[in-house]
Each structure stands twice: as structure tokens, then as C-alpha cells.
Amino acid sequence: MTKKTLQCYIAIIVFCIVVLLACMVASIYYPYPNGQSIGIKSFVMLWFRELFILGAILIAIILAGGSGLWRHFKESKSREK
After folding, report:
1. Which of 14, 43, 55, 58 has the greatest number of C-beta atoms within 10 Å?
2. Cα-only R_g, the chain
């Protein structure tokens, strides 16, 4: 896989996450037929699976970033010796 292809896949994934978040925000402010917006409990019930996926993605990003920082500091210490 080339670097350009990887960047294209990452851009598509980021775009999909942004669209998902936009749909979630829109569902909060959408006036339902009874004239009210949904509460937090209804929001979680509606979007639970997607919230779980976004949480997993966030944890993966944090772990990857932590691993990268750990590797960077480990390499910088070995250069100092």
C-alpha cells in the first residue's frame, strides 16, 4: 500500500467520523413530532452502538499516541548516551 493510498483511507475514515458526529448533533436539536428534543437517556439509547465505536476509536488513538511518545522518548534517551 502506498503512502498516498493510506492517506486516502485515513481521510475517508475521518470524513465518516465527522458525518457520524454531525448526525448525532443534529439528532439532539431535531424537533421530534411531539415538539421536544430528546434527552440524554434517549440520546444514549439511540446512539449507543455508535458511541461505543467512537469510544473504541478514541482509546485506540490515545494508545497509539502514547506508544509513539514512549518510542520517541526511548529513542531520544538512547541517543544521549
Report:
1. 43
2. 19
> 30 Cβ partners below 8 Å, 6+ apart?
37, 38
Q: What is the mean pLDDT of residues 10-39?
A: 89
Mind spelling out the 3-state secondary structure of 1-69? CCHHHHHHHHHHHHHHHHHHHHHHHHHHHCCCCCCCCCCHHHHHHHHHHHHHHHHHHHHHHHHHHHHHH
Computed from CA positions of residues 65, 13, 1, 7, in that sequence, does the dihedral angle turn out positive or negative?
negative
pLDDT at 81: 61
Q: Mean pLDDT across the stretch 31-60?
A: 89
